Amino acid sequence: MSSDKLLKSSILFLSKHNAVRSQLAEAFAAQFDKKGVSVTSAGVDSATSVHPAIVTILKKMNRQDHVCKTIADLKNHRFDLVITLGIVAREKITALPGAPIMVHWDVDDPLTGKPAGVTRKKRITRCVEQIKTLVDHLFSDGYLDAILPQKRNTDRIFNSLAEGIIAHDINKKVFLFSQRASEITGISEEKAMSCECHDIFSGPLCGPQCSFCNDDTIDEFETKKYDSVFYDSNGVRKECRVTVVPIKSESGRIQGVVASLQDLTSQRSLEWLLGREKIYEGIVGNDSKMLQIFQQIRDVSAYDYPIHISGETGTGKELVAKAIHNESTKKGEPFIPINCGALPTGLIESELFGHLKGSFTGAIRDKKGRFELADGGTIFLDEVADLPKHVQVKLLRFLQEGTLERVGSENSIKVDVRVISATNVDLQAEVDRNNFRSDLFYRLNVIPIELPPLRDRKNDIPLLCNHFLDQACEENQSQRPTLSNQAMSILMDYEWPGNVRELENAIRFAVVKCHDRTIRPEDLPPKISNLRSPITSGTRSVNLDRQTVLEALQTVEGHKGKAAKLLGIGRATLYRFFDKHPDLIKKRG
User: Fold this and answer.
1) C-beta separation of 368 from 328 below 8 A
2) Residue ranges covered by each domain of the chain
3) What is the DSSP letter of 479?
4) DSSP 3-state assignment of 386?
5) Who's near 396: CB < 8 A, 6+ residues apart?
6) Is the pTM of this model over 0.70?
7) What is the DSSP-derived secondary structure letter of residue 60?
8) Which among 61, 184, 252, 541 would be 20 to 30 A from 585, CA to CA?
9) Cα(35)–Cα(37) distance, integer angstroms
10) C-alpha to C-alpha distances, 257 to 178, 250, 253, nearest whole angstrom
11) How far is CA 226 from CA 130, 144, 210, 328, 555, in A?
12) What number does CATH give the domain 161-267?
């Protein structure tokens, strides 16, 4: 809060209707020459006019302005002190901008009370005297001078915290927005105040954990913590830890929330530079090639351009697509993955773009396609090279115009969705073979990401093994096994044609097979364990057989030097084996 705002304090007198009590309180308060303090009045409900008897009293006090105001008329005003007059105002008042101090004066409405033997004129006279006395005490006896510094000190505390503080009521109207919150989000306090949180913040800041996204019910919760990635009003990427605590009434009913934003951007950037990032959005890796992929994900997530991910089967293309979605402003919106190669040929167009009832045999009702279901979010087209040519045409049109037509319809539907595609084949080669449209290829391949195979980042194998062992322990609620050095050596030497997915399956196989919580070479899948050389007494004892050598040659595509390394023997040993089995080389050829 600026120094100008601190110097100017504002008081609101609030009653059921701004027709009697609050008007009187404002008039009496205005008679005090209190510099730096402004007073006003309002009602929680609207009134047509000020009561004539009150107008007469106000005129005697030189008060000519008798306009009835409601709290809704003052929604853009901030108050330091709000004084409610009467039980109705106290019960109906909601959180107001700036989180002012609340004080209640128990003053009855003289127009509605009917005690026996008391005329309305006497009730009004008593009400006037009561309010005048209360206002006199407020201004003359030091109460106001005690209250306002408390409000200023509270504001100073909020604004001195390292975390940004935001609070909103049950209707999602923001009533507290600290300076630090403004610095983190790039949104000014004036813009945030009295607005709905979802109107000023993008979805990722609230996150899917938000308890106020559903307009029908509010989830019961005590405290929520989650990490969020979002882009501030200047387009700067921010990483925050959000802690949300409910604001509850005396009866325990949730009336709103207060949230703290801890800016982790600098800390995470430092961790990134130091290479401490090992698991990123579910992707495990610390090899330099994977760190480059992580950086690409961070870079491209700010833009909605189409992305094409290439890589061998099992390298984690869908994980990368999901990471891009979670890092973007579309986080919290749908992420729809589609395996284009698994869709029935005759239903691909309907599955993607939807259809109308009766448009083909079996279309018994209207149906939304995957693109419509992903509206506002991301659609992931895995194995996009398998799309038939006629579907490629419709996909191209969607990428160009952002509209689609259901099967059997002539009406265009506007859909806001980001498209991420992937293949395990060379898509450019498919274009050259005329299997894939070149214009669609260039539309999809705006931002290419190429995932390295596991054999090119073997430094990550121990990290991945530990990750999969931890997962197995959690899934089966069992003691975590360990990998022996011999088993790890074999895993490091294996070429992993199935990449990370094959390694995950190998670890699961070994977890089931081992019995003493230590995974040894014989516990690994036969395809992998058969390629090892037994280790005894610190030296290698070579027991080669025709099948083992043949499998090794097939794995390395006939390269004898690589086969020897895979078998854990010297080249001379392997050549001597070939001398004894010359037909093995011919059979390989």
Assistant:
1) no
2) 3-153, 161-267, 279-452, 458-588
3) P
4) helix
5) 437, 439, 440, 443
6) no
7) H
8) 541
9) 6
10) 14, 15, 12
11) 51, 41, 10, 16, 45
12) 3.30.450.20
Would you state the torsion angle of the CA atoms of residues 560, 562, 567, 572, taken in this order, to the nearest 10 degrees?
Answer: 50
Torsion angle, alpha carbons of 566, 568, 572, 575, to 10: -50
Domain 458-588 belongs in CATH node 1.10.8.60? yes
Give the tokens for residue 368: 């939304």
Model confidence over 353-377: pLDDT tens digits? 999 998 888 888 999 999 999 999 9
d(CA 372, CA 406) in angstroms, rounded, equals 10
* Strand, coil or helix: 495: coil
Q: What integer pLDDT is reported at residue 252 of this predicted model?
A: 76
- With residue 536 as reference, give the H or E element that holds it: strand 535-536
pLDDT at 113: 62
In the sheet that holds 81-85, the strands lie side by side as: 37-45, 9-17, 81-85, 101-105
Query: Tens of pLDDT along 184-215?
Result: 888 888 888 767 777 766 555 665 556 665 55
Among 449, 470, 375, 380, CA closest to 414: 375
Q: Are 283 and 398 in contact (CB under 8 A)?
A: no
The counts of H helices and E strands in the chain are 26, 22
Strands (E), 424-479: 447-450
Task: Enter the CATH code of domain 279-452.
Answer: 3.40.50.300
Spell out the residues 6+ positions from residue 494 whose beta carbon is closer than 8 angstroms to its own. 528, 531, 566
What is the sign, positive or negative, of the torsion defined by CA atoms of 191, 194, 198, 204?
positive
Q: Please name the residue that has the structure tokens 């074999």.
A: 490
Report the interhelical angle of 461-476 vs 485-493 (nearest 10°).
Answer: 120
Q: What is the mean pLDDT of residues 491-499?
A: 92
Q: Which two tokens stand for residue 394?
A: 């419709």
pLDDT in tens, 16-49: 988 899 999 999 998 887 777 889 999 998 888 8
Given CATH 1.10.150.130, say whether it is the number of domain 3-153: no
d(CA 40, CA 13): 6
Contact 479, 473 (CB under 8 A): yes
170 or 274, which is more confident? 170
Nearest CA among 66, 57, 75 for reference residue 18: 66
Give first-to-last CA distance, the chain, whole Å.
81
Say whether 279-452 and 161-267 share the same fold: no
CA nearest neighbour of 162 among 239, 242, 233, 260: 260
